[in-house]
């Protein structure tokens, strides 16, 4: 739990705050990747406790639950709501991305995350709420990431120097050309809720309605049952996907496919 002491005589909560304090981000301010989920809310509160400078950014994916958007605007008005854009400055949405890629996003080819979530803050040092406990995939993921050879870490407390930090806690991202700090990477989900309840941190209402994780509606990383439940709740998003699949098929005219309509693509996509 959060009050349990580690080998350096610090609680897990104290250690996470110290992880944030000990790094000096380039420019003197963190780029805080804020999704509106429980982990992001914890990270933002920890940055406030640590007294560090940051600017928080939410990436508008166009497929997040409307309740989540309302929660962010009401409880975190300081968070910048950013539209992803291409090199020409054109706004990227799920609905124009699918036809451009000429295929639905899948578990293996999750281009949607790259364009809609992971871009942003290029050249900045980022802080995120990524946790091992949230997903085995995240613990094993290494794509586009390298262990930092040179960092701006300051050894402010014994045992918190770069050589003793887990490689997943501080990494260098080739894509964004900046360091990424994950100060709660070793927190369990129970510890996240322990922190939220202890400090009365506001969180999105969807968690009280049975949602265990918040994110893109129809995400291919969710199972079929979860996705069906989402589309029953948000039928307009389902319709938007089908229209995007119809436009995708128009872009694939030179590549014959067994799919004839966006509805057929949707059924295949849901089953996979």
Q: Secondary-structure blueprint of this entry?
A:
Elements: H1 12-21, E1 30-33, H2 38-50, E2 54-59, H3 66-75, E3 80-82, H4 94-101, H5 111-118, E4 126-127, H6 136-140, E5 145-146, E6 170-173, E7 178-181, H7 189-198, H8 224-233, H9 235-251, H10 262-271
Parallel strand pairs: 1-2, 1-4, 2-3, 4-7
Antiparallel strand pairs: 5-6, 6-7
Helix pairs in contact: 1-2, 2-7, 4-5, 4-9, 8-9, 9-10
Structure keywords:
single chain; alpha/beta; Rossmann fold; seven-stranded mixed β-sheet; 37% helix
**Main beta sheet: strand number and arrangement?**
7 strands, mixed
Look at the structure and give the mean pLDDT: 85
Please give the count of helices: 10
In the sheet with the most strands, the strands line up as 3-2-1-4-7-6-5
Measured as a percent range, the helix fraction is 25-40%
CATH superfamily of the domain at 12-84 and 119-208: HUPs
Brief rundown of the structure:
By secondary structure, the chain is α/β, with parallel strands linked by helices. It has a domain at 12-84 and 119-208: HUPs (Rossmann fold). The chain has helices at residues 12-21, 38-50, 66-75, 94-101, 111-118, 136-140, 189-198, 224-233, 235-251, 262-271; strands spanning 30-33, 54-59, 80-82, 126-127, 145-146, 170-173, 178-181.
């Amino acid at each position: 739990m959060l009050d349990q002491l580690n080998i350096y005589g610090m609680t897990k909560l104290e250690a996470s705050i110290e992880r944030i304090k000990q790094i000096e981000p380039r420019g003197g301010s963190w780029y805080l990747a804020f999704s509106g989920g429980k982990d992001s809310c914890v990270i933002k509160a920890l940055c406030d406790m640590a007294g560090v400078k940051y600017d928080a950014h939410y990436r508008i994916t166009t497929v997040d639950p409307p309740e989540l958007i309302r929660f962010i605007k009401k409880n975190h008005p300081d968070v910048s709501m950013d539209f992803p854009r291409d090199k020409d400055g054109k706004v990227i949405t799920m609905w124009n991305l699918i036809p451009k890629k000429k295929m639905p996003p899948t578990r293996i080819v999750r281009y949607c995350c790259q364009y809609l979530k992971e871009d942003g803050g290029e050249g900045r040092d980022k802080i995120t709420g990524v946790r091992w406990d949230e997903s085995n995939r995240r613990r094993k993921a290494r794509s586009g990431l390298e262990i930092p050879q040179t960092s701006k870490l300051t050894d402010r407390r014994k045992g918190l120097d770069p050589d003793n930090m887990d490689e997943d806690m501080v990494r260098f991202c080739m894509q964004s050309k900046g360091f990424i700090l994950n100060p709660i990477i070793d927190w369990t989900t129970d510890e996240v809720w322990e922190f939220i309840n202890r400090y009365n941190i506001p969180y999105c209402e969807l968690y009280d309605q049975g949602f265990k994780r918040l994110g893109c509606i129809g995400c291919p990383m969710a199972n079929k049952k979860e996705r069906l439940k989402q589309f029953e709740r948000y039928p307009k998003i389902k319709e938007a996907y089908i229209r995007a699949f119809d436009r995708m098929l128009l872009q694939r005219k030179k590549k014959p496919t067994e799919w004839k309509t966006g509805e057929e693509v949707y059924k295949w996509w849901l089953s996979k």
